[in-house]
Structures are given as C-alpha cells and as structure tokens.
Amino acid sequence: MPEKLQHVLILAHPGHELRIHHWLELRKPRIYLLTDGSGGHHSSRTQYSRDVVEATGATAGAVFGDIPDATWYKALLAGDSGVFTDVLSRISVDVSDMQDVQIVSDAVDGYNPMHDLAYAFGNALDRLLQSTKPGRKQLCSAAVPNVPGVVEVEIQLDSAARARKMAAVKAYTPLADEARQILNRDPQCFDRELLISQHFDWDAPWTPEWERIGKERVANKLYDRCITYRENVQPVAQQLMSESDRNHVSRKVGRLHSRA
Question: Is the pLDDT of residue 60 over 70?
C-alpha cells in the first residue's frame, strides 16, 4: 500500500485490537475504542489497550475507551442517538487531517450490539469521507471467530511476530479467559490475521444472536428489558448513516461556495 495511506481502526471494546496485533505493528493505525470494556460490573480495560497501542507504534484517537458500556446500552434503550452522533462527529473531526484513509472496524457478528454498531460507525465515517478523500472499501476485523465476510487481507505471522502477539495477549489479564476461549475455537489466530469485507444492509430486518439471548434472559427475569435490533440498534445505525449523508452534502456545498 502507498506510504501516504493512513489507517483508521474503530473497535467496540478494548482488547479487540489484539486480534490483529501484527497488523497494528505494520500499519500503525489511529485507533478509536467506543467503550471502556467495563461491561455490567467490571472495571475499565482502557489502560491495557493504551499499553498495546504504545507498544505497537499505533495511535490512540480522540475517542478511546472513555465511555462506559453502561452509558451506551442506556442510550440504546432510551432511543438516544445523540451519544452516537456526537462520537461520530468527534471521530470525523479527528481524522480531518488525513488525506488518504483506509477504514477498518469491527465486523457485524450478531455477538454484541456494540460490535455491530462499530461497523456502523465505520460505514458512516466512510460515507462522510467520500466527499473529500479517495474512496476505499471498508474492511473489518472480526472480534469473534467464524464471522461471514470476504477475506481481503491475510497476514501470516513469523515466529517473532507471533511471540510478540502471544506476550501482548498474556499481559492483557482481564481478557485471559476470553482469549483462551477464542484460541480453542480459532487455533490459528496466533499464526495469521485476517481483514474481511462485508456488505450489511441497515434497512433489512435481522434478529442477531445477542437479541435472542437477551430475550431469554428477560423471560428468565434476569433482565427487565433487552436491546433489540429493530427498536434500538437499527434506528441508531440509520441515524448515523443519515448524519454522514447530511454532512457529506454540507461539505460539497461548502466546496462549491469556496470555488465560486
């Protein structure tokens, strides 16, 4: 890839960057973390990710694990898209200095609503940048194994890169159990890293796995309410698309006026 190409990585949770640790070393992206990884009752994982970013030579973006998971979920249940559009604005301002941009995000996986919305943020930012930057296909790094998509980039890790990745995962102690589970399901994750492309239609109906599990927990009285795709996630994703299209038009009009 050309040296001038800069990479933007949008992830739902701290720790997802470990899936593509060597890619971070190679491309040194500017990384945006939507949540702090605190979940329902746990502490923030943000500092662990800052350590990974620093070690790989990547850069922490203007939005980097400063919003708790609970804040996002509360906004989703309340139908409050303001939190989401504000974050999109903060990211778009932060990348305004970039000339040639490749956006990479979490993939839509149906595993967690914030994973799916990280892809929506990538979609929206990509559409917004089309008005001023060269168009490039959005790529995805799947946070969990067996996510559908077309493989666009495959990186084979040599022994040194593999050792650095294993050491980074081992040092990320809050994810020790999750890392073991992923390794059991995807034994090659320390040997190769993949970026895929997806084409997800935000206007189409869908019932993700996280919604099915949430409804089961409501039925079992573990939750009072659960997030659904149609009522909570889809409207926010569509609002992000609308926001990017509106700003896209505004930028075009601004350029036309500046030429007049």
Answer: yes
Please check the confidence at residue 145 and state whether its pLDDT lies above 50: yes
* First CA to last CA distance, the chain: 36
Q: How far apart are CA 79 and CA 77, in angstroms?
A: 6
Residue 131, φ and ψ in degrees, nearest 5: -75, -20
pLDDT given at position 179: 83
Per-residue CA distances from 122 to 19, 78, 102, 132, 221 (Å): 18, 23, 10, 16, 35
What whole-number distance in Å separates Cα of residue 227 and Cα of residue 107? Answer: 19
φ/ψ (deg, to 5) at 36: -95, 0
Share of the chain above pLDDT 90, in %: 78
Cβ neighbours, 10 Å, residue 177: 9
Q: Which domains does the chain have, with CATH numbers?
A: 6-259 (3.40.50)
User: Pairing state of beta strands 30-33 and 59-64?
Assistant: parallel
Query: Model pTM greater than 0.90?
Result: yes
- 100-134 pLDDT, tens digit per residue, is 999 999 999 999 999 999 999 999 999 998 877 76
Predicted local distance difference test score (pLDDT) of residue 210: 98
Residue 104 phi, psi (nearest 5): -125, 140
**Short-list 18, 8, 1, CA closest to 162:** 18
Nearest to 34 by CA among 144, 125, 153, 157: 125
Question: What gap in Å lies between CA 87 and CA 118, rounded to an integer?
Answer: 11
